[in-house]
């Protein structure tokens, strides 16, 4: 009889351990019958963490600094406009 599991729980742990203990942790997880897959990744130190204050988080979304930056970037993008000399006898979109 084959059991097919369609639901699972995923857990992500962040831990600071010396590299010598990673083999022991991996072995311990391998012996646990409830753990199906296990992966250990090294965290990148290059990730820049943006400082955030409660004042910034309490602002409405359009007024936040990162949203304002995204809006400025979107304004710089070139958006092609409809040209009337395309061979159609009518405007294909509603005015």
TrEMBL record:
<dbReference type="GO" id="GO:0005840">
    <property type="term" value="C:ribosome"/>
</dbReference>
<protein>
    <submittedName>
        <fullName>Uncharacterized protein</fullName>
    </submittedName>
</protein>
<dbReference type="InterPro" id="IPR035980">
    <property type="entry name" value="Ribosomal_bS6_sf"/>
</dbReference>
<dbReference type="InterPro" id="IPR014717">
    <property type="entry name" value="Transl_elong_EF1B/ribsomal_bS6"/>
</dbReference>
<dbReference type="GO" id="GO:0003735">
    <property type="term" value="F:structural constituent of ribosome"/>
</dbReference>
<dbReference type="GO" id="GO:0019843">
    <property type="term" value="F:rRNA binding"/>
</dbReference>
<dbReference type="GO" id="GO:0006412">
    <property type="term" value="P:translation"/>
</dbReference>
